[in-house]
């Protein structure tokens, strides 16, 4: 079974085969990690994104990585948090699953994720971590690729939440 790692860092510096972009449904860029990925990848990324004609929440589309070290960027619009009663958890889980499925189809051995929806879209970090880790662990337990998935947390607080969530659900001792 592939392994999951929780680290702190800047996903634009990732050397994984694919990185995930917490995008919006236009796929035409924005703030947060989306803005950082577009800046680091260069204008060719936006040019390719324009050919994709957007993406639905919970789905994913793949582009090349251009000036990034990562070969591919997998763009997924997460849900906007509306209090939790509007299908947000199912949509967030679908984001992770769709990205992992695309990565597998493109032969990616390693994939790095940011914490989708937990910035501008307002999803509470602990609840997002539960959905993210459960979906990734389920996928890894039933597929041989990718071999390594990393959650790249952007702050110590975020990393602590992911570690605590992991320990709560998956630690064996
Ligand atoms: N590396 C890793 N994680 C990061 C980085 C980075 N360089 N920069 C931010 N984060 P957000 P969302 C974390 O707001 O909530 C955009 O405008 C950040 O701390 O980037 O899904 C899109 O176009 C947070 O934990 O994405 C959409 O309109 C996480 O990444 C909207 O924002 C996600 O924060 C998407 O909102």
Automatic annotation (TrEMBL):
**Top-level taxon:** Bacteria
**Domain spans labelled Macro:** 1-170
A GO molecular-function term, please?
Answer: deacetylase activity
Concerning Gene3D superfamilies, the annotation shows: Leucine Aminopeptidase, subunit E, domain 1 (3.40.220.10)
* Record SMART domains: A1pp
InterPro entries linked to this entry:
Macro_dom (IPR002589), Macro_dom-like (IPR043472)
Q: What is this protein called?
A: O-acetyl-ADP-ribose deacetylase
């Amino acid at each position: 079974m592939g392994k999951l790692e929780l680290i702190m860092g800047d996903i634009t510096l990732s050397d994984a085969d694919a990185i995930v972009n917490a995008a919006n449904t236009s796929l035409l860029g924005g703030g947060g990690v989306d803005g950082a990925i577009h800046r680091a990848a260069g204008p060719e990324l936006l040019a390719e994104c324009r050919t994709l004609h957007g993406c639905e929440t919970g789905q994913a589309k793949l582009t090349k990585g251009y000036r990034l070290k990562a070969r591919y960027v997998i763009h997924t619009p997460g849900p906007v948090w509306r209090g939790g009663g509007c299908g947000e958890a199912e949509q967030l889980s679908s984001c992770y699953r769709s990205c992992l499925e695309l990565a597998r189809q493109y032969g990616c051995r390693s994939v790095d994720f940011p914490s989708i929806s937990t910035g501008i879209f307002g999803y509470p970090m602990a609840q997002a971590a539960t959905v993210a880790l459960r979906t990734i662990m389920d996928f890894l337990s039933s597929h041989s690729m990718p071999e390594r998935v990393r959650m790249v947390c952007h702050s110590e607080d975020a990393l602590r939440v992911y570690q605590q969530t992991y320990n709560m659900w998956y630690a064996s001792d």
